[in-house]
Amino acid sequence: MSQPSHQLPGSIDETMQMLEKAGYIGERSLATVLYLSLKMGRPLFLEGEAGVGKTEIAKVLAASLNRKLIRLQCYEGLDISSAVYEWNYAGQMMAIRLAEASGSVDRDQIRSDIFSDEFLIKRPLLQALDAHIEGPPILLIDELDRTDEAFEAYLLEVLSDFQITIPELGVVKAQAPPIVILTSNRTREIHDALKRRCLYHWVDYPDAARERRIIATKAPKAAGRLTEEIVAFVQALRKQDLFKVPGVAETLDWASALTELDAVALDPGIINDTLGVLLKYQDDIAKMQDGLAQNILDDIKNQMKSH
Fold this sequence. Notes:
This protein is an alpha/beta fold.
């Protein structure tokens, strides 16, 4: 039996508490726009670099509100059959053959039978319009910038009226609109027409204090001094001219990896040995191994001594 859904937060403070209770350490500005999105019933469009925690917000919402999470992972070439619906063609052919074998020649009846819910395969967008016992689901449209403009245009009907037109069946409309979270890594600009239907928030890299709190929450086994040095090192890395600076996800992976190696502080050897956890491009790793990591570490040690 399904557990009852939790009530939506009644204020910005309650939204902050909901996020933190689920282990998500966010800024008040994020809690504000999330609260407004829930209150106004508007989709929330989250933009920011990869690995800063955009997708996690939808997961936290689903867990905190006890709602089903329906995720549409976007990619180049995503089409309606993968995102919205398709027909079970094999099942339809079998039904046609059985009807013919039974002597049925009523084509209108056969067409009505095969273009019915029985043969409709629902993909994420159509699933999100269904009624759910727990309440409207969380629909996560992840990395929208990976799709093309044609699919973006198709989303306008879904996000405007929370309905989908299926030519063979007609219009399918949600009894209660889903809670929609869209994310983009900004590899391309999303069209204004889509953005106008959403509330917007830029999810930035956390400052040092917030990143320390994130590690304390998500990787609590990391030693205090190690956490301080990890955060200082990653914060310094984000100021360098790298192809891809590490996000929060990489910070947490690095903290966990160093903890597994029983590290209590950073040193040049352990940094070089674990750079592949933190950085994902060889050119960036080579730049760090060319003395940059040592320089950053020396600066961190000197700053800590002066404090």
